[in-house]
Amino acid sequence: MPTLPRRRLHGLHHRLGAQPGEQEGHGSRRCAHPAVDFLHQFPSLRLISGQPHHVPGHLGQARSPMKIRSALSALALPCVLACAGPLESPAFESSSTASIGDAVQNGDCVTQQVSAVAPGSGAGYPAPTAFPVNAGWEYEVTVQGTYFANDGLYADARYSSRFNGPWQDTPAHYESSGPTLLDLQFWDGAASAFVSPNWGAFSSSHTYSTRWTAASGQLRVRINDDYAGNNSGSLSVTVCHVLDHPSCPGDVQGPTLILHDSSAMTLECGLETWADPGAEAWDVACTPLEVHRYNAGSDASGPGPQTFAEGTYPVQYIAWNSVGTTVSAIRSVQVDDRRPPVLTLKGPANVTHTCGSPWVDPGVEAMDACYGDVTPAVRKTGEVNGWAAGTYQVVYEVTDSGGNSATPVTRTVQVARCPWE
Description:
The chain is built from no helices and 33 strands. By secondary structure, it is an all-beta fold. It starts with a strand and ends in a 5-residue tail after the last strand. This is Pesticidal crystal protein Cry22Aa Ig-like domain-containing protein. It holds the Pfam family Bact_surface_Ig-like.
């Protein structure tokens, strides 16, 4: 069976049943042993074995610390996972191959060339190209290429609202030896499950992309071109399993909880907002468990991290199964002021003052993203003698409560034209 390159998203999962520190394939580690206590120590991550060890990060980077609380049960052993972060778009590498007949999963991608086929008169259908997928999983479909016309005929782009429905004509389009007009269609399982917007005509070399959650075990793709005999080319269709968030490890033997993003986060006071990355939890056989949040901002137990006040805010996640076995994790959110205030002169930086009267300082304004108006904390050095000709400099400085100092600003005052000179 032919094989095609696949791009794999590397991830980390923890499994039960091995000795502490035992490696389980690339980027994984097992956890076991019933002696579990509530762990308060940062920054080391301690799994339920009670033995401290470093957790490898995503693609080889170190993981952030996590604070864990585990409640034991004689029936199941919970395990808490922390995922490297932040998790954004999947990081792929071309390292493995897979049969086209395999289901696209585990962050892999499969690419196939799809050629347009003329449906003929009436309700003929080109044969679809199949991509096996897993129902309930999120996928991204990308189509790229140009299909060229070799004639000056009218071509009817056609579409179908459902896989086995009749073809319907769209208005005719004139071709002049350029890219042809094609119709690209996707079906997910049942005839009534029409996937994605109909991208319609491929009028030039473009890349089209969309995401969807699979409804069944097969994605089918076809392209219609009424004048396929006169045209040439094919389109590259790539189907990727999206892993924006961690997936169930697959061998769960008790409640397991995974934090999305890092377990220790830092937000810039006054500039960044708190958005809870959330968590996922499963029981045996990857049965999803509801994750309860505390002090996440979306629950009644607390307002969540306040990004206009420096401090450390714990956000807790707890899940439990039907027999009461629980697992939990705490995300530590540090709101820190690392930006200095901004000092702005009021009035010009260079001033000429007529000798014989006191000079009035127009002052400065100092604003801080975290603490707001800090003008009262401004320090001024230098004085101006309005009765003595000369050049004077006044320097303004300010430091906020976080210890961040603004760039000093200077005003130059020229005292001139004294009556007695």
